[in-house]
Write a structure and sequence with these properties.
Strand content: under 5%
CATH class of the largest domain: Mainly Alpha
Shape: elongated
Distance between the termini: 44 Å
Radius of gyration: 20 Å
Number of helices: 9
Length: 234
């Protein structure tokens, strides 16, 4: 009898995974904001109220998918850097691994990085892996600086914001213009390998002073709202 709760928990987890899988299919067909729980229920073969035993609202489904996606992206960027010693090579490999993950999970990537659902805000629990992504890239940049390949300012807030913007640009362009091609054949994904060189050009390691930056407008807010950054920002 002691294994009955385990079997129930396992069946519940399997049903939740099925719901999320079908939800992704619906989002791929109707757009991320077009998710309908009634459609999900019909495809699974249950009445809509039955879904609420597993997810109390549509936003709860989005939240579970957001966490699932951020965990997958975090795993990809960590694995990309693993074979390398700290430095530009590790940073570049991590950026490329993340870009490849996005190309392979385009529907989830829209939810993670472009926020197409009005009114949906990730819960703190679902946002935690995104924070870990930011910390991962911050550590990578710090390692590049310590290796002497970047100016120390690159590891500051502005440098990390620039890195996030650099990776978001090619990926956004790729998904907007050529979503159906492979990473290798992408017009814009092929630029990802050049991003470390661009960062180095802005923060060259042998500068005697901090890199020149555009002046901030008086009162301009620093940083971005939680979750509003690009793939390297978390």
């Amino acid at each position: 009898m002691t294994d009955i709760p385990d079997r129930r928990a396992r069946r519940r987890a399997e049903t939740q995974a099925e719901i999320l899988g079908v939800a992704l299919d619906v989002m791929a067909e109707e757009g991320v904001a077009g998710l309908s729980l009634a459609t999900v229920a019909r495809r699974i073969g249950v009445k809509p109220p039955s879904l609420y035993k597993y997810f109390p609202s549509r936003n709860a489904v989005y939240d579970a998918l957001f966490r699932q996606g951020q965990e997958g992206y975090l795993d990809a960027v960590r694995r990309g850097a693993e074979p390398y010693e700290p430095g530009l090579a590790a940073l570049g490999a991590s950026l490329e691994a993340g870009a490849r993950w996005i190309m392979e999970h385009q529907v989830l990537a829209q939810l993670l990085f472009w926020r197409p659902v009005p009114g949906y805000v990730p819960s703190p629990e679902s946002y935690a892996p995104a924070t870990a992504v930011h910390e991962h890239f911050a550590r990578l940049v710090k390692g590049v600086v310590e290796r002497g390949e970047l100016h120390p300012a690159a590891a500051g807030e502005e440098g990390l914001d620039l890195l996030s913007s650099l990776i978001a640009g090619p990926i956004s362009q790729q998904l907007s213009n050529q979503p159906g091609v492979t990473y290798e054949r992408g017009r814009f994904t092929r630029l990802v390998s050049r991003l470390p060189a661009i960062l180095t050009a802005v923060y060259p390691p042998r500068r005697t002073g901090p890199p020149a930056t555009a002046p901030r407008a008086e009162g301009e807010a620093r940083g971005a709202a939680p979750g509003s950054g690009g793939p390297a920002s978390g």
